[in-house]
Design goal:
alpha+beta; 15 strands; seven-stranded mixed beta sheet; AtsK-like; 2-oxoglutarate-dependent dioxygenase activity; Double-stranded beta-helix; three-stranded antiparallel beta sheet
């Protein structure tokens, strides 16, 4: 990667919020949001929260005390529940995934432990994901995020023009196919792998236009993007690897440290995320929901 000439993103220029306090965490993306109680948030406060989310792409709402039902209510303020795939939701809360790793588990990895955007193999992938930290280890388990709109902006006009005419192929096979048996080692996660649908493929534009901000975004990810429509594997793989490596350059990423009572919300339409598996021997418990998005388009 050649030297990145950094320009301060528009999200870090002064924005005025009357009901919440927003502090950017990096120049690329991410912000801490404080001075609010999500169980008592006014309509004006929620409008500002959504504004901050679209501007910063991932927000970390600190010092909350949410029940699972509270999390469901907050999720529905953003829109309709997303369609979960390959993971079994809670029996009493059919749209909530219980993400837990016990201290005595032997698996050296965690659920979702690779750079990805949620469920891009779906016709309408999630617009937003909400993840609430119920029981957090004293250290470790940070989540990393990448700004795919900023990565696209860095590309040369010629490369942008080339990519905008391409469609990327997405499939759950690498993560949930018959060869993804490592999922079975996550002892306290009900994950289905090797089903008939794990071979399904779906194409989306490689460069999409964000439906709310209008910004162009690289809509690919290492976990689910398997190729480029119309190209042979030996042609598409080097291009995808270049873009994957570009997107995770330090200038385009942030890393969030969890603490108990934090709710993270991120915009899947313009970000990747990856949890760090560095808390072996310690318990971590989270609750996760998604918000249904639109079919990606140019």
């Amino acid at each position: 990667m050649s030297e990145f000439i950094y320009t301060l993103p528009s999200h870090n220029r002064a924005a005025t919020y009357k009901n919440i306090r927003v502090t950017p965490t990096t120049g690329a993306l991410g912000a801490d949001v404080e001075d609010l109680d999500l169980t008592r948030l006014s309509d004006e406060g929620f409008a500002e929260l959504r504004q901050a989310l679209l501007a910063h792409k991932v927000i970390f709402i600190r010092d909350q005390a949410l029940s699972v039902s509270d999390l469901e209510r907050v999720t529905q303020q953003f829109g309709e529940f997303g369609r979960e795939a390959y993971v079994t939701c809670m029996a009493d809360h059919p749209h909530v995934v219980h993400v837990v790793k016990e201290a005595d588990e032997k698996a050296p990895f965690v659920f979702g432990g690779a750079w990805h955007t949620d469920w891009t193999f779906q016709e309408r992938p999630p617009a937003f994901t909400l993840l609430y930290g119920q029981d957090i280890p004293p250290y470790g388990g940070d989540t990393c995020y990448a700004n795919l709109a900023l990565a696209y902006e860095w590309l040369s006009p010629g490369m942008q023009a080339l990519l905008e005419n391409l469609d990327a192929v997405h499939s759950p096979e690498m993560a949930y196919g018959v060869n993804a048996r490592h999922n079975a080692l996550l002892e306290n996660m009900a994950i289905n792998y090797g089903s008939d649908t794990s071979h399904d493929e779906r194409s989306h534009p490689l460069v999409t236009r964000h439906p709310e901000t209008g910004k162009k975004v690289l809509f690919i990810n290492p976990a689910y993007t398997t190729g480029i429509q119309g190209l042979r594997s030996e042609e598409s793989r080097p291009l995808l690897e270049y873009l994957f490596n570009l997107a995770t350059a330090e200038a385009f990423t942030c890393r969030m440290r969890w603490r108990q009572g934090t709710l993270a919300i991120w915009d899947n339409r313009s970000t990747w995320h990856m949890p760090v598996a560095d808390y072996h021997g310690m318990r971590r418990e989270m609750f996760r929901t998604t918000v249904l998005g639109e079919a990606p388009s140019r």
